[in-house]
């Protein structure tokens, strides 16, 4: 297993195959030790009504294993979902880095990506207002490289020593363990108002970025400044980005909350289904590069993780593509046991002195030691590098490898001093020789102390609807904060970002609006808004609502057009099973009003049906009204049109009524509306 082989996109899968069990199908049940069993439902007892006997090794083994099935969940990012895939560069990145997996286009490197929420427990929901983790393990020929990213490019704090504080503050409060997976409570906002470096991150957290539509439709950011080093030893500062090919999209807050009840697995299901259907999610890798000589050329410190590098000032160069194309076989073995670490680097990629990054370099191994039960977690199949690995680390709980040989120390003569270290020319990792000097102090540079300018930049860059969502998010979160003093402190803090914004929510949360404040930042960064992100009908989900006696000709035309445009359709009715059209055509309903709210879909087409009763009509009206208030495209014909008109909602944008045009034209217009995604200009109240 541990031999040198050319790495390609299949390398990790082939390695995992060595550890996969056969399916249980048709097999005889045995103990863990291979003994065939004759009985699995009755314990061994002394007589039919007597006590259970200690001798019952099968009972003991089965129960003991069960008792020990759980491992500690991750202290943050506990709820996650993952998939396998591959990565390739578009052009050689040789001018910037010697990392071998970034040298040649067409060379494919296997990857494993775990997406996550940050705050909630493992059994919480997929759609809270929260940052999302986006951690990628590249299995390269030089060892594993981990890009452990989030979907928000900045962080709450500048120094990792404060991480336990922010996490304690945002997690459920310790005296009553409430609320789950939510920042909307006193301790979090108390912490925010006492730690003003969080301002920029809070703007992102209150924005649509914190309620993504899908893992397939969110950006990823390495957050920290890293270094790329080329063969000549020249370094560049770099920030890493993932750009989803489908664009960056979000849902609305009311939808997010309802989805939490209707389908807490909404985002993992979306990823799982997309991969199973062959709609492989794709993300382009982007680099922002700053020359070493320009380290101090910006009005922020490039080592400060609460700052972005505005894309208009430092463009993102798209250098490669990652495709996720295979679901996991077993969530525990892969998604739960995968262990990421920002310190897993390869030659050509190095760190900077960002104080948040430095703290992470300690924390990730430390946490795995507890979570995965000891120092051998690198041997768990999902964590193993695909290249060979040799050293003198030995033993410990759960050791898998049978290391041969007598010698387990360095230097040695007995084994010719092997395993030996090698220089850079042979692939040995040499840390970048940055010159550092200074006194031992606990202090932060002045250049880290502007906490508000970029928060204002973010606000300035939002569209009108995005601004409204941010204001509503502040209102929601702060309305749940019981202490009026904390609410006022937050208002006073965000007055520093924008008086316009803070005034818009201050009175609604029983606080005194600011009289003055704001920064002198007037510029905006269009890249921060989701307004201009790519939009496509591909993989959008549309509910086609029909009752008995639906109009077969129209419905079939619409289904055909949607499907050929790459839209996913779902037939929905008041019951499961075959529904007959007025022309005797048949469609099978696999979704119902009861099981799937309108929130499960991106757009709705209601045809109705001649035989629809009043209960169907009531349900359809509620379904439509809800989708309408979420700004979704709606197409209506036949009874559907009448029901909707009865609610006086017909003239708003994004509502398509089938009048006398051809159903082909109607269907094409609907696809166009689906491509627009949401109609924010619609008046919903
Ligand atoms: Fe993490 N973080 N983090 N983090 N983080 C963990 O590691 C930590 C930070 C991120 O899917 C933990 O294995 C510290 C920034 C992701 O398995 C832990 C600090 C970013 C994941 C930890 C940070 C991240 C984690 C918990 C501040 C975006 C999930 C379990 C110094 C760039 C990885 C684990 C997965 C997980 C510590 C800040 C992203 C405790 C101390 C900034 C995506 O080690």
**Overall shape:** globular
| Beta-strand residue fraction | 15-25%
Number of separate domains = 3
How is the biggest beta sheet arranged?
10 strands, antiparallel
Please identify, by name, the CATH architecture of the largest domain: Beta Barrel
Bound molecules: CIS-heme D hydroxychlorin gamma-spirolactone 17R, 18S
Arithmetic mean of pLDDT: 97
Radius of gyration in whole Å, from Cα?
28 Å
Q: Provide the CATH topology of the largest domain.
A: Catalase HpII,  Chain A, domain 1
Structural class: alpha/beta
State the total count of DSSP E strands. 18
Helix content: 25-40%
Number of helices: 17
CATH superfamily label of the largest domain: Catalase core domain
Using the coordinates above, name the CATH class of the largest domain: Mainly Beta
Measured between the Cα atoms of the first and last residue, the distance is: 63 Å
Structure description:
The chain has helices spanning 11-17, 57-67, 163-170, 186-194, 199-206, 253-262, 266-276, 332-336, 355-371, 453-461, 464-479, 484-494, 499-506, 552-564, 614-629, 638-645, 663-676, and strands spanning 80-89, 109-117, 132-140, 143-150, 220-221, 226-229, 235-244, 282-291, 317-327, 349-350, 541-546, 568-573, 577-580, 586-589, 591-592, 603-608, 634-636, 655-657. The chain is of the alpha/beta class and 685 residues long. It folds into three domains: 80-383, Catalase core domain (Catalase HpII,  Chain A, domain 1); 451-528, Hemocyanin, N-terminal domain, CATH 1.20.1370.20; 541-676, Rossmann fold (3-Layer(aba) Sandwich), CATH 3.40.50.880. The strands form three sheets. Strands 1, 2, 3, 4, 5, 6, 7, 8, 9 and 10 form a ten-stranded antiparallel sheet that branches. Helix 15 links the parallel strand 16 and strand 17. Helix 4 crosses helix 12 and helix 14 crosses helix 17 (663-676). It is globular, with a radius of gyration of 28 Å. The chain starts with 10 loop residues before the first helix and ends in a 9-residue tail after the last helix. The model has no long low-confidence stretch (mean pLDDT 97). Residues 74-77, 80, 114, 116, 133, 135, 148-150, 155, 160, 163, 222-223, 338, 340, 356, 359-360, 363-364, 367-368 line the site of CIS-heme D hydroxychlorin gamma-spirolactone 17R, 18S. It catalyses: 2 H2O2 = O2 + 2 H2O. Keywords: Heme, Hydrogen peroxide, Iron, Metal-binding, Oxidoreductase, Peroxidase.
């Amino acid at each position: 297993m541990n031999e040198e082989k050319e790495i390609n996109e299949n390398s990790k899968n082939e390695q995992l195959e060595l550890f996969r069990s056969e399916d249980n199908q048709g097999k005889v049940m045995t103990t863990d030790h291979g003994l065939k069993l004759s009985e699995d439902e009755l314990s061994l007892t002394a007589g039919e009504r007597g006590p259970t006997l200690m001798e019952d090794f099968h009972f003991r083994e089965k129960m003991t294993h069960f008792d020990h099935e759980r491992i500690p969940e991750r202290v943050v990012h506990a709820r996650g979902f993952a998939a396998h895939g591959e990565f390739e560069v578009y052009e050689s990145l040789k001018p910037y880095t010697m990392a071998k997996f970034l040298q040649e286009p067409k060379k494919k490197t296997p990857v494993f990506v775990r997406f996550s929420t940050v705050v909630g427990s493992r059994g919480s929901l997929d759609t809270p207002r929260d940052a999302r983790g986006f951690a990628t393990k590249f299995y390269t020929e030089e060892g594993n490289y981990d890009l452990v990213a989030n979907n928000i490019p900045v962080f709450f704090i500048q120094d990792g020593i404060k991480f336990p504080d922010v996490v304690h503050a945002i997690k459920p409060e310790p005296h009553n363990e409430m609320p789950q997976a939510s920042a909307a409570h006193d301790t979090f906002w108390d912490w925010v108002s006492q730690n003003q470096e969080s301002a920029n991150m809070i703007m992102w957290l209150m924005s649509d970025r914190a309620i993504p539509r899908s893992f397939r439709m969110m950006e990823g950011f390495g957050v920290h400044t890293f270094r790329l080093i080329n063969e000549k030893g020249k370094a560049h500062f770099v920030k890493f980005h993932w750009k989803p090919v489908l664009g960056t999209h979000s849902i609305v807050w009311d939808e997010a909350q309802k989805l939490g009840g209707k389908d807490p697995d909404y985002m993992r299901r979306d990823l799982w289904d997309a991969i199973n259907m062959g709609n492989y999610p794709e993300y382009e890798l982007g680099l922002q590069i700053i020359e070493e000589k320009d380290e101090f050329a910006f009005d922020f410190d490039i080592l400060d993780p609460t700052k972005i590098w505005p894309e208009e000032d430092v463009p993102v160069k798209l250098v490669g593509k990652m495709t996720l194309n295979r679901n996991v076989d077993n969530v525990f073995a892969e998604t739960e046991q995968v262990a990421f670490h920002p310190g897993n680097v390869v030659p050509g990629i190095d760190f900077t002195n960002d104080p948040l990054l430095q703290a992470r370099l300690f924390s990730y191994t430390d946490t795995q030691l507890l979570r995965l039960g000891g120092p051998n977690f690198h041997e768990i199949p999902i964590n193993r590098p695909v290249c060979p690995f040799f050293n003198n680390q030995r033993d410990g709980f759960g050791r898998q490898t049978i290391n041969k040989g007598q010698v387990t120390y360095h230097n040695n003569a007995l084994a010719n001093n092997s395993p030996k270290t090698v220089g850079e020319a042979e692939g040995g990792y040499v840390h970048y020789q940055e010159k550092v000097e200074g006194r031992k102090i606990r202090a932060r540079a002045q250049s880290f102390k502007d906490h508000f300018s970029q928060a204002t930049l973010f606000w300035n860059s939002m569209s009108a609807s995005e601004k409204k969502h941010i204001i509503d998010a502040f209102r929601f979160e702060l309305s749940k904060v019981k202490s009026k003093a904390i609410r006022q402190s937050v208002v006073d803090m965000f007055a520093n970002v924008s008086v316009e914004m803070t005034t818009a929510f201050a009175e609604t949360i029983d606080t005194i609006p600011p009289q003055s404040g704001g920064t002198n930042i007037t510029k905006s960064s269009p890249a921060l808004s989701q307004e201009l992100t790519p939009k496509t009908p591909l993989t959008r989900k549309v509910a086609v609502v029909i009752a008995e006696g639906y109009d077969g000709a129209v419905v079939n035309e619409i289904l055909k057009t949607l499907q050929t445009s790459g839209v996913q359709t779902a037939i929905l009715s008041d019951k499961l099973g075959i529904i007959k059209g007025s022309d005797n055509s048949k469609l099978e309903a696999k979704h119902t009003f009861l099981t799937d709210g309108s929130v499960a879909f991106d757009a709705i087409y209601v045809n109705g049906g001649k035989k629809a009763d009043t209960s169907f009509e009531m349900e359809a009206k509620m379904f439509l009204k809800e989708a309408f208030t979420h700004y979704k495209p709606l197409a209506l014909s036949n009874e559907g049109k009448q029901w909707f008109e009865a609610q006086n909602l017909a003239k708003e944008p994004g509502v398509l009524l089938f009048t006398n045009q051809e159903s082909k034209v109607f269907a094409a217009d609907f696809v166009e509306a689906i491509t627009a995604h949401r109609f924010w200009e619609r008046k919903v109240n």
